[in-house]
Amino acid sequence: MTAPAQAVSAHHAGFSYVNVALFCIVVAVTVIGIPLYGYFVGFTLFDWVLAFIMYIVTGMGITVGYHRLIAHQSFECPDWVKRCALVAGGWALQNSALIWCADHIRHHARTDTDEDPYNASRGFWHSHCGWLFYETPHRTDKYEIRLRRDPVILWQHRYYWAIVASGLALPFVLGVLWHQSWIGGVSSLLLGGLFRMFMVLNSTFTINSLCHMVGSQPHGTQDSSRDSWLISFVSFGEGYHNYHHTYARDYRNGPKWYNFDPSKWIIYTLSLFGLATNLRRLDPTVF
Questions:
Q1: What is the domain range of residue 185?
Q2: Which of 92, 103, 229, 273 stands 20 to 30 A from 3 (CA)?
Q3: Residue among 120, 57, 68 nearest 91 (CA)
Q4: Is 225 in contact with 235 (CB distance < 8 Å)?
């Protein structure tokens, strides 16, 4: 739900060449490179299964780790669980938890205004991914104050790029070991690394864009947020966005038992083993 690369200048608006370059590389490899590779070399079932598993792990790192644990403090957990969640979230190439969560807190505090990072009133393209291409003067330190008190968040921020690299190295190494060849490693890297990254990025982007444009508002009309059960199927339960904006610190986005929200099920399952505590419900506060 925030940019894939760290801001070079936090307080001066301008074109973000780093973000544009990363975006173009991921899109070009996914749209052009992977189909060509698949046609001339081919992928195996292992490559596709690995991509699916990495998609789930990385997506949950964003929804459970970055979003519900760090940004909204909807539950608490031991530091080692938090570290695992932030490593998985870092694999998504959506910035460090420090920057991501500060931007997301600002989104809730200033929804549909110029200070909103992915202001939906500026249209689909801007809220989906266009906002990534520009630095913003609204990324101020006040949204990071609480986050900077957490040494685990600072640890992940410090080693963010190493974590991103590990998320690409892992499928490559697994591919080499499984296929017993370097070309097998490349196959697994393309699907389990770059294609998976592209899919997780866009699943997150749909929350910023479509969930502020399409769907219902059964819980409040205080802003443009919408509930969309369909989007929940590609975003690990984040599609119940109107509920989330109304009860921002609830560990559930889909409050009903039948709502598709695997992120809440993961958190609840962790609580059964004592690895998640103080699960919040119906809490409207943001910070």
A1: 14-208
A2: 229
A3: 57
A4: no
